[in-house]
What we know:
This protein is an alpha+beta fold. It has 3 domains: 4-16 and 170-292, Beta-Lactamase (2-Layer Sandwich), CATH 3.30.450.40; 40-150, no CATH class; 373-522, Histidine kinase-like ATPase, C-terminal domain (Heat Shock Protein 90), CATH 3.30.565.10. The chain is 54% helix and 13% strand. The chain has a 5-stranded antiparallel β-sheet. A 5-stranded mixed β-sheet has the order 7-9-10-12-11.
Amino acid sequence: xxxxxxxxxxxxxxxxxxxxxxxxxxxxxxxxxxxxxxxxxxxxxxxxxxxxxxxxxxxxxxxxxxxxxxxxxxxxxxxxxxxxxxxxxxxxxxxxxxxxxxxxxxxxxxxxxxxxxxxxxxxxxxxxxxxxxxxxxxxxxxxxxxxxxxxxxxxxxxxxxxxxxxxxxxxxxxxxxxxxxxxxxxxxxxxxxxxxxxxxxxxxxxxxxxxxxxxxxxxxxxxxxxxxxxxxxxxxxxxxxxxxxxxxxxxxxxxxxxxxxxxxxxxxxxxxxxxxxxxxxxxxxxxxxxxxxxxxxxxxxxxxxxxxxxxxxxxxxxxxxxxxxxxxxxxxxxxxxxxxxxxxxxxxxxxxxxxxxxxxxxxxxxxxxxxxxxxxxxxxxxxxxxxxxxxxxxxxxxxxxxxxxxxxxxxxxxxxxxxxxxxxxxxxxxxxxxxxxxxxxxxxxxxxxxxxxxxxxxxxxxxxxxxxxxxxxxxxxxxxxxxxxxxxxxxxxxxxxxxxxxxxxxxxxxxxxxxxxxxxxxxxxxxxxxxxxxx
Length: 535
């Protein structure tokens, strides 16, 4: 159930609750204390003693060849080494030990701290001061170098994260990339919470939060302020929660659970964290805006498509229905005055318009099936038979167009869906019939080329308008909408079927006039062996 504070937070609603500690003893570890503890680690003092011992040994070996003042340089080198490697505290100890060692081993009387010549007192003081200055400057340079390296590492990581975020798409990828970089820099477990449609936070990826932590995150989202660990607001939380503030408001909350909570108390670390979180927020906001823009674009395209469909289909449905209704009405109202030829013509008109209406409805249904992801039933079949079936379906309409077929002898079997491939051929032939003058020939050919079957349907009509070679495959596109009836779906259906077979289709103008449509699809291995009765 939690503490009294937890109950107050859960039931506060829109009321802000601020917790003020009654004790005046601030037990938080300040950044300076963190740095001091790091430098004053007791394990660093033993190496300082060992370095001075080594310096003393070296100075003892040099004693007979150098003046005592020259031996001081050996200790100064040791102090620089200690300050560079272990920091200011151990180097200060090394300075004191170096003065004591020089007095004990190299100033008469030896092996005692007493001094026979008072001038050495000045030497000791100067030696100590120089040692302390050198150790302080060296330690400061070391800290500055470490800080520069740390800033360089942070800058490189921030740049890498920004670059990866810019090249990624999708909220899940952005959350994963940002969480990984932030977790590596701050040695922390990172979670991201994004609001749903109701404004309630939902955890991204595989992570869990208890009720109390989720309440803190929700508070951060509503107030756009950091809360939790190492903050003044709800510091009893297990992690620190930062708002993902974009240019248009808060887009979510990120939570960090560091291995060392004291690290986030340093101002530079908090500023760095805010920088990383800000980059994540901008990337998530950009992704959300892109999703909204894409959703609006799809809505506009859907409305345009719906308008085009209604306009095209209503006209193409109404025209044959009017013709069928008129012909049927004339036949019904005939009192015997119509000649047999006129009655036949009316019946023929009704039949042809009904067929056209049937083709239109079939195209609409085929387009719907293909867009819904119709399953392709591939079987090894004869392309010649499918071409023959398509020609039989259009036998009446092809009477005014001489037809030429050019197929190589002994054409092998190919894997394809016979019904869909038949529809492709029918649509291409119908397109040639509609857009070419009566009496002009139509040609069909096929050949095998580098693992693909290529089929061509050519005509001798006016050809394609320059620049429309690819547009003709768009849904509802018609080259001559005023003079040629149709919904503009036939070639779009052909393209969908061929793509479903793993092939491609394209159109070109012929050098001597007319258009030619070519499509290919892969052969896909060797056909199965056909057993004969003798076997």
